[in-house]
TrEMBL record:
Cited InterPro entries: Bacterial_PTS_sugar_comp, PTS_EIIA_man-typ, PTS_EIIA_man-typ_sf, PTS_IIA_man
Organism: Liquorilactobacillus hordei
GO CC annotations on file: cytoplasm; membrane
UniProt superkingdom: Bacteria
The protein's name: PTS mannose transporter subunit IIA
Locations listed in the record: Cytoplasm
């Protein structure tokens, strides 16, 4: 089973996973890790290495982060030097997690990553009331 690691600034990684699990149920081979205020990059790297060791990587590992160029992203990029199969995608949101959980058994990692990114894009939406008709937009 493909592994998932979510790492963000603050505690949002844990809460994003918990929110997705409310919809999809408790997930196996999934972990989250916060990068907290005042924490050193070296500590984050050690924590990431420890979390990764606890995952089954036989089918691959996707790491989702919140911000390209942020410390979690930069540390994971550095870790690809010793683990080149580690995959990283930024901009994590709940639709991305749901897509991963739903499709990880059926899709190969390259296709799964594309599906996860598309779900993330599709999950961003601006609601618009249509005043000329007085009706709400169809979903």
């Amino acid at each position: 089973m493909k592994a998932l690691l979510v790492c963000t600034h603050g505690k949002s990684a844990k809460e994003l996973v918990a929110s997705a699990e409310m919809i999809c149920g408790k997930q196996q081979n999934c972990s989250s890790i916060p990068f907290t205020m005042g924490e050193s990059p070296d500590k984050l790297m050690a924590d990431l290495e420890s979390k990764i060791q606890g995952l089954d990587l036989s089918d691959g590992l996707l790491c989702l982060t919140d911000l390209k160029g942020g410390t979690p992203f930069n540390i994971l990029v550095k870790m690809t030097q010793t683990n080149p199969s580690l995959e990283i995608v930024t901009g994590v949101n709940i639709p991305m997690l749901l897509e991963f959980f739903i499709r990880r058994e059926q899709s190969e990692m390259p296709d799964l990553i594309k599906q996860v990114i598309e779900a993330g894009h599709s999950g961003i939406y601006q609601y618009a009331f249509l005043p000329e008709s007085g009706k709400d937009e169809d979903f």
